[in-house]
Amino acid sequence: MRVFWIAFLLPALLCGQLAQSAQVGRFYTFRYPQGWLLSSDGRTPALVPPPAADDGASSDMSIVFSHNAELRDAANSRAAAKALAGVTAGSETRLGETRGFRATEVSGWMHSGRIVNEDKSETLARVYALPLPGGGTALALVAGGAKALAVRQKEYEAIIGSISTRSAEMAPVKVTQKLPAWATDEPVKRGPPAPPRKTAAQVEAELAAEWTSLLSGRTWAAERRSYQFHADGRYDVVATVTIAGLNDSAPRRTSDSGTWKVVARGGAAFLAVESESGRTGLLACRRDGGRVIIDGDVMTAR
Fold it and tell me: What is the pTM of this model?
């Protein structure tokens, strides 16, 4: 297999935009720009880019990060695809072309190919496999449309290039002396048949329905704003802002109304709102333990 190394240097401007950080377990961290939306359970965080003006064509992508303790040959595209089995459940990852990839702290390989879904549809994919100094391999799966992968390549490679173990509390990693059966040609011992796996579309539909049920018909409030989500798809919001004057500042209350719905993209839930004045927004929704967080604010039901 021929591998071509490509030196990876972060442009100064783009590097300066990587203002936010996230962690994958206790194994490694990465940084990402303002505007990108993060959905994370702490083990396989996912990123999606901000909405684009070109009918979303350049936003039709996601990055999913994970860690694998048993992948020993990160340059092997077949082994890298097998290592993603837990991330792409219900789909088949087919990787071919491989090139070297050098990040700021670690180096590894990028494998390009596609994901074949259960309905036989295909999604372009790039898998970055970066062995870590403390053991194990950092995996970043970039999947989406051809335009998004081309237009946003510098952005997502800057994000992946920021992978670091310096600020992560490293967990001990046990490296096996032999590749597991799923990464070799050895027959796999199978137990009782597993129930059919859900497609990505089914998982996202359930996620959107779960958040819709959680929000609908209730009022959710943070320190400076309060949303009332009506069951008929309308919302009312009241926000408190501080307007600075020449000699003093005073809080002002503003209100707005419009329509709302929950959408799911890349395994993450988002609150899509459109005000009566025509302004639109896409607000990230996630849970952190028992807390409900919308657009970065911890919300309380009232």
Answer: 0.53
